[in-house]
């Protein structure tokens, strides 16, 4: 395309805690990614819309991932033979796995489906109907544990406790499965605790780690070397649209628009197709480029973007924060007056402080995620301008503002569009590296205005 290709194929790399990369260019899956795809385990498998050719299947929600699914099916079948006491070829089943892929590609969906297949009572086919499948998918199976970090990291104490429990024999007689979502958030010590378990796994224990990539920033080289990697790809928009229609009953035209706008992120596509507030926030973000008419407008746009991310984050946790606090206070017997109540309250203060710390960490992460989603949308706009300028044979991401991106393409040079796109990516990296969001976003807006 006559462009410095590196800029699109390898956007500047940074620590990627909240960093979904927008553009898997030229067939290469984005290397670094973020956590966003995790929320909202899809409908239960008993849902008839959730079946393929009339047969329930734990892998049905993995969109556009035929090859990885085949790998997992084979491994689960081998695992079932191990349980049955049969000989299996070396390497047919593995005790430690890493699921990688861009955000929304379904890393945790894949891990959960595989966990269900391992617990499936029908020769490990992952029927989606037996008790093992159901309870594993519903996160209530006694032998399947999920580590979902709410804050910015997974600490060593949590990991030690987990490793200890995972070493016990599976109560259901099949496998102990530990699913670690966002394994890129392991602290170094927690990683070391995990490594010990992976190096000498108990005979019936399986670790499933989800990370954006196998880059050393995301997962230590030693852990990586002991795991089998399942690389998920960014599903094509057509596959995402198909699943929205089939599974969630979204009208085909809405599904097609949402799938394109979500840039391959299944969860985000679903939200856009149903949640008017999410749609409104996206529209506000996509209106930014045409609002930047001067320095003052840049500062206003920056402040609006940050406030919107804060509001989104606050909204998502306000209720649960309050509920958690009430529950903890009740558990601690707040308001007691009897003998020992004063001492109990002193201990309680510590626990409440601990809860507040956790909630604050969760809020920080949630705010970063919301801001990052906005930046991905914005980057998508400049990417659309660029592909229009270059007449690249690819579809635009934001079809509903194609008129605006087309107009910008007629006005800006490719070089200045590229500078704008780079400014968005640089802003994401800066925030990732703990630059204060308002400073990073203001700097970005100024570049977006000047070009
Ligand atoms: Zn089953």
TrEMBL record:
Q: Which Pfam families match?
A: DNA_pol3_delta2
Q: Give the signal sequence positions.
A: none
Tell me the segments the record calls region Disordered.
Answer: 1-49
Kindly list the residue ranges recorded as spanning the membrane: none
Residue stretches making up the AAA+ ATPase domain: 93-235
What NCBIfam families does the annotation carry?
holB, PRK07940.1
Name this polypeptide is given: DNA polymerase III subunit delta
Give the originating organism.
Answer: Paractinoplanes durhamensis
Per UniProt, what is the name of the gene that codes for the protein in this document? holB
């Amino acid at each position: 395309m006559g462009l410095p290709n590196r800029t699109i194929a390898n956007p500047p790399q940074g620590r990627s805690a909240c960093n979904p990369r927008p553009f898997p260019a030229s067939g290469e899956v984005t290397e670094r990614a973020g956590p966003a795809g995790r929320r909202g385990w899809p409908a239960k498998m008993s849902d008839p819309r959730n079946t393929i050719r009339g047969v329930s299947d734990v892998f049905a929600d993995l969109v556009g991932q035929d090859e990885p699914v085949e790998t997992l099916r084979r491994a689960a079948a081998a695992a079932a033979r191990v349980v049955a006491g049969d000989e299996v070829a070396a390497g047919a089943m593995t005790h430690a796995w890493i699921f990688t892929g861009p955000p929304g590609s379904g890393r945790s969906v894949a891990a959960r489906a595989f966990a269900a297949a391992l617990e499936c009572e029908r020769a490990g086919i992952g029927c989606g109907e037996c008790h093992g499948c159901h309870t594993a998918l519903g996160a209530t199976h006694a032998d399947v544990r999920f580590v979902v970090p709410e804050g910015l990291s997974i600490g060593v104490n949590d990991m030690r406790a987990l490793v200890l429990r995972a070493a016990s024999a599976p109560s259901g007689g099949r496998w102990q499965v530990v699913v670690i979502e966002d394994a890129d958030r392991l602290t170094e010590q927690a990683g070391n605790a995990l490594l010990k378990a992976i190096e000498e796994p108990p005979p019936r224990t399986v670790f499933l780690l989800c990370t954006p990539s196998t880059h050393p920033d995301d997962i230590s080289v030693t852990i990586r070397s002991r795991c089998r990697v399942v690389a998920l790809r960014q599903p094509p928009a057509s596959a995402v649209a198909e699943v929205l229609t089939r599974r969630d009953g979204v009208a085909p035209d809405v599904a097609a628009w949402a799938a394109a706008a979500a840039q391959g992120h299944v969860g985000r596509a679903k939200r856009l197709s149903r949640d008017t507030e999410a749609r409104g926030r996206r529209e506000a973000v996509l209106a930014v480029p045409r609002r930047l008419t001067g320095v003052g407008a840049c500062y206003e746009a920056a402040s609006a973007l940050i406030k919107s991310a804060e509001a989104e984050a606050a909204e998502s946790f306000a209720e649960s924060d309050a509920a958690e606090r009430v529950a903890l206070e009740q558990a601690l017997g707040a308001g007691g007056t009897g003998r020992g109540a004063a001492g109990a309250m002193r201990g309680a203060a510590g626990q409440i402080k601990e809860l507040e710390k956790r909630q604050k960490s969760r809020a920080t992460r949630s705010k970063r995620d919301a801001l990052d989603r906005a930046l991905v949308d914005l980057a998508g706009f400049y990417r659309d301008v660029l592909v229009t300028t270059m007449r690249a044979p690819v579809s635009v991401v934001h079809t509903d503002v194609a008129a605006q991106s087309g107009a910008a393409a007629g006005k800006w040079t490719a070089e200045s569009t590229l500078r704008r796109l780079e400014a968005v990516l640089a802003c994401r990296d800066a925030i990732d590296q703990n630059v204060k969001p308002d400073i990073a976003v203001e700097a970005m807006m100024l570049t977006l205005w000047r070009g």
